[in-house]
Amino acid sequence: MSNLIVKPTASPDGTVLTITPQSAGWSYVGFQVIRLSEGDVFRQATETNEVCLVLLSGVADIATKRETWTGIGQRMSVFEKIPPYSVYVPHDDEYEVRAKTALELAVCKAPGTSGRSARLIAPEQVGVEIRGQGSTERQIHNILPEQESADSLLVVEVFTPGGHWSSYPPHKHDRDALPEESLLEETYYYRVQPEQGYAIQRVYTDDRSLDEMLVVKDGEAVMVPKGYHPVSAPPGYEVYYLNVMAGPVRTWKFHNDPEHAWILSKPVV
After folding, report:
1. What is its EC number (predicted)?
2. 1, 98, 246, 259: most buried by Cβ count inside 10 Å?
3. How far apart are CA 17 and CA 59, in angstroms?
4. How far apart are CA 257 and CA 206, in angstroms?
């Protein structure tokens, strides 16, 4: 198995998947998935990180040191394709999540420095767009884009229909070379419907020192430390993924693979 794929492993506190900068061998992005039953509680201190809590499915009460939100969440599956409720929590804070229903929670982490206030990101604040055309068309939910307040984190979710491609044409963001390209580490957390399906993701560099073709199953994550990283959803299977990105500068400037950039000018048939 590729060392870029992270598989779920259940823990007593509800944690089913964990990526840290130490386990990934990088500097910025941390990620967890928590699954709770109704009435279960998950608590964690943010320490030196800012955190974006994304309610992937289910309803919860969430409290930080100074704020409380009750009964947030509306979708029971990511494949309802409506924007999620999320909560931003700054560094040097803590949060408690109390599940009101069965709950799947994503915990997105990156270095925090400014001491911003905790805030709710309601569905109506999430930018929704259709990106691409033809077999590259997919639905985007911009949960925490660079236009919204944060220190490091960029968070977005993508719905790729069966038979379509996303993160396409192949692009990368692994050089600190602004304004042309920004250096951003990235994780992909996958859900697939029907769940016996899979996604295909290729991760490769120009010199092919990294060149892996990954078969990713429902509930698994992929770490993208560098290189281009397109995704394909096989016919009959809808693919969802949550992206978390962070780097030295909080901006998304990507570079398309020059071998495939011509696709952008190709007429849709």
Report:
1. 5.3.1.30
2. 246
3. 20
4. 8
